[in-house]
Amino acid sequence: MQNPSKIKGVSIAAVAAFGLFTGLPASTFGGGFGIDIHLGGPPPRHHDEVVVLEYDRYCVGYRQNLYDADWRLRNAQIEQFSAQDALDAARHRESEIAVVVEDREIILADYEKRVAESDGNLAAARAAVGRAADDAADARARLHAYEKRIAGAREDRDAARTLRDGAALVDAEARIRTNEAAAAQAAADLRAAEARVGDLQAAEAAAAALNDARIQLADARARLPRLREDLAIAHDNVFAAQQRLDASLQSVALAIHDRDEALWLLHRDEILSGRATLASCGFTVDLGVWGGRMPRDPEVVHAYFVHPVTYWVERPAEIHVRVAEVERVTEVTRIRTIQEKHEGPRFREVARFEQTVPLERRRAAYEHIAVERQTLVAERTERATAAAEHRAVRIPETVRAQAHAEVIKAHADGRATEIKAHADANAELTKARADAKAERIESNAKANAEVTKARADAKAEHIETHGKANAEVTKARADARTEHIEAHGKANAEETKARADARVKETEARADSRNAKNVRDDKNSKDPKKKNPNNGQQANSDPNR
Q1: How far apart are the C-alpha atoms of 352 and 347, rounded to whole Å?
Q2: How many Cα atoms occupy the beta-carbon half-sphere of 469 within 13 Å?
Q3: Taking CA 132 as the corner, what is the angle to CA 130 and CA 138, rounded to the nearest 5 degrees?
Q4: Which residues are within 8 A (CB) of 245 and not within 5 positions of it... i.e. 6 or more apart?
Q5: Above 60 in pLDDT, residue 218?
Q6: Would residue 291 be called left, alpha or beta, if left means φ above 0 and alpha means ψ between -120 and 50 degrees?
Q7: Is 0.85 surpassed by the pTM of this model?
Q8: Integer CA distances (angstroms), 66 to 286, 341, 371, 461, in order
């Protein structure tokens, strides 16, 4: 029968080894131990367990590997972008020097051509001047001989005139005309030869005018080797920056491989059981890859999910995709929470970099790195060939083409910036003018409104005042007319009353008079003495009566 103490020691050792394999600390099991065997899958997890995010307690085993790989990856990305910036700066410097070298070479070739043409023209002019001098001497001698003949012919003509020799006179005049024509031709040849001699002076003046070109040619010849040396140094700096960028790519690829390896070891059982998800494990199981069934060999699954370092080095563009996939994995987020506490100031630098450099910019950088790797391979081949042939490294024509492209782009950017600045200035000026015009229009509108309101108020006051005055005048006129009508009515009434009274009185007087007359008539009718009507009429008509 075995000793129980030995059995207990073996069990504790087995549990400790199991803890090391699974990445759990020995303190997890407390003072005792327990074995929980689950067939057909990993042991169930308790969702209510509390995860203590402390470096010493959480980052053990495979989580320690995950922590180190993720931290190395984040720092390697910073180094990669720094190397990319250094490479861009080195390429820009190389492009500037390449443009200067090419300009100097063009100037040198132009000056060499101009000086060579000037020297050739000067040599040709000197040779032509030698021939022209011989022609001038011959023409001068012929002209002198013809002049002598002309003088002799004129003496013969004078003699013939004296001797009255007609035939000799005709002959002398003919000789004079012939020799004068020949002398004129000789004089023309002499002038042409002397004019060709003047070409030498023009050629010498042109050669003297090229003295500045000769000086600049000498300066370009003196400075060109130094510029080519600077270009070679700049090209070496570009190569060094390319190697640094390639080394940073190797570091990034190795860190991604190690991080995927740590995630695989942490979630191996979940992946093999087909329950792995991208958010929990960093991998997504697609059984369609293996015909709908999980392979029996775990190494097949391991090789499918965990790629070697060379895979990422040869495919830099896929690094961005993998980095973005693992950003939100549960274990990675926990690890980064611990990094924030454990790494101190360096974590803040890394976090600042990841905030200032978004994922889109990283994707573009990785695509550019793929092109740079091809350039680096070609550059390494060229340098190996140059070392084997014991010659200087040839700078490819693509460098100059790229330099011209950058210069053209810089000029275009500068032009675009200038145009944009002018456009912005014009827009601001137009806006300022529009604002000023709007303010002026608004001020004028306000002034016009105030003037219109003042005029309307004045007109209203005037109308109101005029209306009040008209009302008062109308009222006064109405009152006066009423008073006039009342006075006139009263006057008419009094006059009517007076007339009526007068009429009444007159009527009464007439009535009284008729009554009195009737009374008298009655009396006269009774008195016989008064029966004579004439007497009565005379008596009535007597005024003294």
Answers
A1: 8
A2: 6
A3: 110
A4: 80, 83, 84, 86, 87, 369, 372, 376
A5: yes
A6: left
A7: no
A8: 24, 16, 30, 93
